[in-house]
Write a structure and sequence with these properties.
By secondary structure, this protein is an alpha/beta fold. The protein has 15 helices and 13 strands.
Length: 343
């Protein structure tokens, strides 16, 4: 797989047309399982074919139980300067319920050890709206994590999606989604506690200290260009979206035999407008109505204009000139509000 990804890196070297790279992100699974040699091979190949900025944010997703001292040292030596740690919860019962392999002590050790070894730029994931999770318990989790000095937090509400292990567990009663009132209480609690520690709510699920917003995710939300390598990876060049085949054996075979291993979609004006709405309304920056007409070549009709006025009247959005951003009440309904504005 690493050999195939290195081959793809070389083949995709012109995709960004010489643009420098400010963010490199190892994710989409458990990349902390990569050996030091494999990780270094990918980073070396990346350096050979792309221009990496000197202060680039180089992130690796990791489970706490993978982050022992020697592993952290090798990651830092390879050039990893940011870790995304999947903590999810500090409650042992909740961790077992989610089938997580680590304990709360291992999670805390992973954060502190990484900081001691010089990787201070750490983001962590927490899941809220878990079964039987009270607001008080979730608040304690938040304070425990932020008290460790992490720079960034991603907080996601538990949702049960079809064809997932949670869906199977839900059918057997092993796990259940929290009710709407609990979900809302946890959602509102997150920015309140984050504010106590100086973290800013800059996207529906993301909070960061100033200058520590995720460059990787922010690039998606702001429409920057990016290239993705490996099975299921997505790429965007401003004119089209491209996604690799998801099946691992098929990906390996097609890369090895130089066959096309991706699909591509050219983005028309309508799609460009809707994608801008879908990404922009998730963030604190919101959307620029002038941008929609000038850059996507699409103009809002009377229906959208009336909806925007209605959102503002109901306290779901703020309007500043031609810019609109959702309030905390609006962010609770971001998907439905965005869909209502689709053209």
């Amino acid at each position: 797989m690493v050999q195939a990804m290195c081959k793809e890196l070389k083949a995709r070297s012109t995709y960004l047309e010489g643009q420098s790279i400010s963010s490199v992100y190892f994710g989409g699974g458990t990349p902390s399982l990569l050996s030091d040699t494999h990780l270094q091979s990918l980073l070396d190949e990346l350096q050979r074919h792309f221009v990496i900025e000197s202060d680039a944010e180089i992130t690796l997703e990791a489970n706490p139980d993978d982050l022992h001292r020697q592993k952290i040292e090798s990651l830092r030596a390879a050039g990893i300067n940011r870790l995304s740690i999947g903590i999810q919860s500090f409650d042992e019962t909740q961790l077992r319920r989610m089938n997580r392999a680590h304990t709360s002590k291992e999670a805390e050790f992973a954060v502190k050890c990484a900081q001691d070894k010089g990787i201070e730029n750490i983001t962590a994931d927490l899941i809220f709206a878990l079964p039987d999770l009270t607001v008080e318990a979730y608040t304690a989790d938040l304070r425990r994590l932020l008290g460790m000095g992490v720079k960034h937090l991603s907080a996601y509400g538990l949702t049960v999606e079809p064809r997932t292990v949670f869906h199977k567990w839900s059918a057997t009663g092993r796990i259940q989604e929290a009710n709407a009132a609990t979900f809302e209480a946890h959602f509102r609690t997150t920015p309140q506690v984050c504010q106590e520690f100086g973290l800013e709510h800059y996207e529906v699920s993301n909070f960061g200290l100033p200058h520590f917003y995720s460059r990787h995710n922010t690039a998606y939300w702001k429409g920057d260009h990016y290239v993705g390598i490996g099975p299921s990876a997505h790429s965007y060049d401003g004119l089209s979206r491209q996604w690799n085949i998801a099946n691992n054996p098929q990906y390996l075979h097609k890369v090895a035999t130089n066959e096309v291993h991706w699909e591509r979609e050219v983005i028309d004006a309508r799609s460009a407008c809707n994608e801008y709405l879908m990404t922009g309304l998730r963030t604190k920056w919101g959307i620029d109505l002038d941008y929609i007409s000038k850059q996507t070549e699409w103009t809002f009709g009377d229906q959208q204009e009336a909806l925007i006025h209605d959102f503002a009247q109901r306290g779901l959005a703020t309007i500043d000139g031609q810019k609109m951003a959702l309030t905390i009440d609006g962010l609770l309904q971001v998907d439905s509000l965005t869909a209502a504005l689709f053209v």
